[in-house]
Design goal:
2 domains; 197 residues; mainly alpha; two-stranded antiparallel sheet; 4 helices
Length: 197
């Protein structure tokens, strides 16, 4: 049920949320069911019936109206009105049923919106953190390449054992490769800064 959007009729909304309302007066509990001393818990489902709404004396074990019906599978919260030609007349009970189902649906959607907002904020933070780590990694790579090139240049100028010891053509190729690596790395860093900035 959670995380799934479905189109349900009024009776199905009530059947899927038995602990959210009184099955007799259709009062919506809104996550605040009556005190155990003021309710009867159905022994077959998770519904709670007001003590004042239950029949006197209540049967033991107690069954709510939907569960105590001769055919629970075909039970309906609405009253069939033969005088309406097979239709249904909106009386006080029908209005209470519809209002209760609407409140349950509204509460369910509010919870779904809150969960979706939390998940979206978490994903946004994770994405920002990943971009930051990628940018820092590229900056470290660029810094290491720059330091390596500086050291190589110093070795060449000081007559060390760097690329100056290579033949002329090989040294030129080596220096060109180093410059190309620096340019590529700097381009990657600039692209990351542009995207994350």
């Amino acid at each position: 049920m959670r995380g799934i959007q479905r189109k349900l009729c009024t009776s199905c909304v009530l059947r899927l949320h038995p602990s959210s309302f009184c099955p007799v007066c259709f009062a919506f509990y809104d996550s605040n069911p009556p005190h155990p001393s003021k309710r009867f818990a159905c022994s077959k489902c998770a519904s709670f019936t007001h003590s004042l709404c239950a029949s006197t004396p209540p049967p033991s074990p107690y069954l709510c109206p939907p569960c105590s019906a001769p055919s629970p599978a075909s039970f309906t919260f609405f009253r069939n009105d033969a005088s309406a030609g097979g239709g249904r007349r909106i009386d006080g009970k029908s209005a209470a049923v519809i209002l209760c189902a609407a409140r349950i649906a509204s509460a369910s959607m509010a919870k779904a919106v809150a969960v979706a907002r939390i998940e979206a904020e978490k994903k946004a933070k994770d994405a920002a953190s990943a971009r930051k780590r990628a940018r820092e990694a590229l900056e470290r790579v660029a810094l290491l390449i720059t330091k390596n090139n500086v050291n190589a240049t110093q070795n060449n100028n000081g007559g060390g054992d760097g690329s100056a010891l290579l033949p002329g053509s090989a040294a030129s190729f080596f220096n060109a490769s180093k410059k190309q690596n620096v340019n590529v790395s700097q381009e990657l860093v600039n692209n990351v800064k542009t995207e994350t900035g």
